[in-house]
Write a structure and sequence with these properties.
By secondary structure, this protein is of the alpha+beta class. It has two helices and three strands. It starts with a helix and ends in a 12-residue tail after the last helix.
Length: 106
């Protein structure tokens, strides 16, 4: 019975640490740009886009496709970096030990 209680306590501690990690990631900022800085995207550590800045010189009504590509590239990179940050922090949380269950993705 004691082993089960210890396991339950460990699970509760892990759940609390995971909630802390999610909160901490939400406070971190990742900044990525594309087109030599013409489009900059800021996202939080959970991958949620918080800001998009576009250099006015890249706004060309005749070439909207370029602007779309630049925004997509910056957003994709910010989300990828957020995922990497999440995975690194998760490894620290678990001490690199594989868990017996799958934690949710960002």
């Amino acid at each position: 019975m004691t082993n089960f209680q210890q396991l339950l306590q460990m699970g509760q501690q892990m759940q609390a640490r995971f909630a802390e990690l999610q909160s901490e990631l939400g406070k971190q900022t990742i900044s990525c740009s594309s087109g030599g800085g013409m489009v900059t995207v800021k996202a939080d550590g959970r991958g949620r886009v918080r800001q998009v800045k576009i250099d006015p010189t890249v706004v060309d009504p005749a070439d909207v496709e370029l602007l779309e590509d630049l925004v997509l590239a910056a957003v994709s990179e910010a989300q990828q970096r957020a995922q990497q940050l999440y995975e690194e922090e998760l490894k620290k949380l678990t001490g690199g030990m594989p868990l017996p269950f799958q934690l949710p993705q960002l």
